[in-house]
Amino acid sequence: MSGKPRLTYLNGRGRMEPVRWLLAAAGVEFEEVFLQTKEQYEKLIKDGLLLFQQVPLVEIDGMKMVQTRAILSYIAGKYNLYGKDLKERALIDMYVEGISDLMQMILMFPFSPPDAKEKNLDSIKEKAINRYFPVFEKVLKQHGQDFLVGNKFSWADVQLIEAILAVEEKIPAVLSGFPQLQAFKTKMSNMPTIKKFLQPGSPRKPPPDDHYVETVLKVFKK
């Protein structure tokens, strides 16, 4: 095995996509193993690789890590993307948790019944415009800095640019009332490591399609 982190998940975004984003933003190359069958997933459980019988699984620094939040915290700390002290870390945690609440809605959207999709999309739009994006617009405006915390690139910035782009895929004009976030998006998208991740052929996964939904249900359904 090489020294690269090894990511085991499906060939799609899901709960692994923020991990891919954070590693890519830190300039870290990684390997991926894609689950395609229920048998592969059950073998991971049988072999004792999944502490709570759940993926994502990330093998890094001799550890077999599960639980997305723990994985992201470790990567952020390892690559100096987690603030300079406890107060900055607490701010990053608050912002990340808020963004994760919004991303959870986006994560579940492809699994919506057909007759609920329009309602769920309206809910994502309403929450993004009225609850989540105003927070970050205000933070950036008040401190007048390029980054969310400590005027330094952090995990919170990575999560926010991922969320902005994910929401824009569904609601293209969602940032029309948020000039600070528009500027933030432009700046983040042009950072060398993120710009590379946004290019075709990178490990970034496309929006979930019907095939991805079918694979999720096939691999994980009881």
Please, could you describe this protein's structure?
- α1 packs across α6 (155-170).
- The chain has helices at 17-25, 38-46, 68-78, 86-108, 117-143, 155-170, 179-189, 192-197, 210-220, and strands at 6-9, 31-34, 57-60, 63-66.
- The chain has 222 residues and is an alpha+beta fold.
- The model has no long low-confidence stretch (mean pLDDT 95).
- The chain folds into 2 domains: 6-79 and 198-210, Glutaredoxin (3-Layer(aba) Sandwich); 86-191, Glutathione S-transferase Yfyf (Class Pi), Chain A, domain 2, CATH 1.20.1050.10.
- Strands 2-1-3-4 form a 4-stranded mixed beta sheet, with helices on one face.
- 31% of the residues are buried.
- The longest helix is centred in the middle third of the chain and has 27 residues, at 117-143.
- α1 links the parallel β1 (6-9) and β2.
Summarize the structure.
This protein is an alpha+beta fold and 222 residues long.
The biggest beta sheet is recorded as: 4 strands, mixed
For the record, the count of structural domains works out to 2
Which percent band covers the strand fraction? 5-15%
CATH class of the largest domain: Mainly Alpha
Radius of gyration: 18 Å
Output the structural class. Answer: alpha+beta
* End-to-end C-alpha gap: 32 Å
Write down the CATH topology of the largest domain.
Answer: Glutathione S-transferase Yfyf (Class Pi), Chain A, domain 2
- Name the strands of the widest sheet in spatial order: 2-1-3-4
User: In the CATH classification, which architecture of the largest domain applies?
Assistant: Up-down Bundle
Got a strand count?
Answer: 4
Number of helices: 9
Mean pLDDT: 95
Listing every helix as H and every strand as E from the N terminus to the C terminus, the arrangement reads: EHEHEEHHHHHHH
Family: Belongs to the GST superfamily. Alpha family.
Keywords: Transferase
Protein name: glutathione transferase
GO biological process, one term: glutathione metabolic process
